[in-house]
Specification:
By secondary structure, this protein is of the alpha+beta class. It has 2 domains: 94 residues, Phosphorylase Kinase, domain 1; 190 residues, Transferase(Phosphotransferase), domain 1, CATH 1.10.510. The protein is built from 13 helices and 12 strands. A 5-stranded antiparallel sheet has the order 2-3-4-6-5. The radius of gyration is 19 Å and the shape is globular. The relative contact order is 0.13.
Length: 340
């Protein structure tokens, strides 16, 4: 399954496409300005792209003052993640660099460097640690992050490699970590399986989950986005996010979409971009119990509350954490407390 990308979109463009009902236009919109592929930190073969080859090689050729570049880990829409090493300590790190092809776009440079500023405001074991933000001598911006050994929740979900209790344990950790972001006045805006990284053995009693990628995150004090800059991943976007006004409850909605997809085996809504916008804003989802009658009714009700159209009708992330932890078997719940 192809991982969904975060996108920057225009409401005007989406509306125009919906009115035209042109499948080819809708398909093109789904690829508009991809920001991150959300791939896990595992070495894999490079993805072919249309940007010049030199753009992806610049960071490897550049000498970073404090870090050595050992090789490429993964590529996103506009950035590449490298395996790095601290020259002084030998510690392995992950280096996320904006592709040189985009260095001339000041808004993209600001967005990447801004991830570090947001990360400094919220510290939690379930949030990826972004150590610093720097630029190469050629002006390529990059972030130095902790290196994670494991797999993305997307990869694990696609393989159906997780039990229901493991999914709930991971989702509870995500809720707890994102609650720390919310307490610091930050909305993640892109909670999805691709942006949850499971460290170590996912089948262990208490798999450790980390929330990654603040590429489209924003402060709760920021004004609504302009018409030309709706940001997020369409399959996980709350109604208010489609209108450029994400709030903390938007992350709750996205986590509800993530839980739904992992437990039911399909997204809450699918289709073309205009169809997804209409569905997320206007349509009620089918209850998870319809497809999975074995689910506890309490879990079904929680997910439906998380997917409420009105932000004020959704539970807080702290409440979601408490509800999910209560639904876990006693042994998993005790282990989960130790990871928070």
């Amino acid at each position: 399954m192809k991982a969904p990308c975060a996108v920057l979109l225009s409401r005007t463009t989406i509306t125009r496409a919906a009115r035209a009902a042109n499948p080819s236009e809708s398909a093109a919109l789904q690829l508009a300005l991809p920001l991150h592929k959300g791939s896990g930190m595992k070495r894999r073969r490079p993805i072919s792209r249309t940007i010049p080859d030199h753009a992806s090689r610049c960071i490897e050729d550049a000498r970073l003052e404090a870090y050595g570049v050992l090789g490429e880990i993964a590529r996103g829409g506009m950035s590449t993640i490298y395996l790095g090493e601290d020259r002084a300590t030998g510690e392995r790190v992950a280096i996320k660099a904006l592709d040189a092809f985009y260095v001339g776009h000041s808004d993209l440079v600001h967005r990447l460097l801004g991830e570090h500023e947001l990360a400094k405001r919220a510290r939690h074991p379930g949030l990826i640690d972004i150590r610093c933000a720097e630029q190469t001598l050629d002006g390529v911006p990059y972030l130095v992050m902790e290196y994670l050994d494991g797999e993305s929740l997307r990869a694990l979900g696609d393989r159906r490699a997780l039990s229901r209790s493991a999914i709930l344990a991971i989702a509870a950790q995500v809720a707890r970590a994102v609650a720390a972001l919310h307490a610091a006045g930050i909305v993640h805006c892109d909670i999805k399986p691709d942006n949850v990284f499971v460290v170590g053995d996912a089948s262990s009693a208490a798999p450790l989950a980390k929330v990654i990628d603040y590429g489209v995150a924003r402060s709760t004090s920021d004004p609504p986005l302009a018409d030309s800059a709706i940001a997020g991943t369409p399959a996980f976007m709350a109604p208010e996010q489609w209108y450029g006004a994400p709030v903390t409850a938007s992350d709750v909605y996205a986590l509800g979409c993530m839980l739904y997809e992992l437990l039911v085996g399909r997204p809450v809504f699918s289709g073309s971009l205009p169809q997804m916008m209409t569905a997320h804003c206007e349509h009620l989802p089918a209850r998870p119990l319809v497809s999975c009658p074995e689910l506890p009714p309490e879990l079904d009700r929680l997910i439906m509350r998380m997917l409420a159209k009105e932000p004020g009708m959704r539970p807080s992330m702290t409440d979601v954490d408490a509800e999910l932890s209560r639904l876990l078997p006693a042994d998993r719940s005790e282990d989960l407390q130790a990871t928070g």
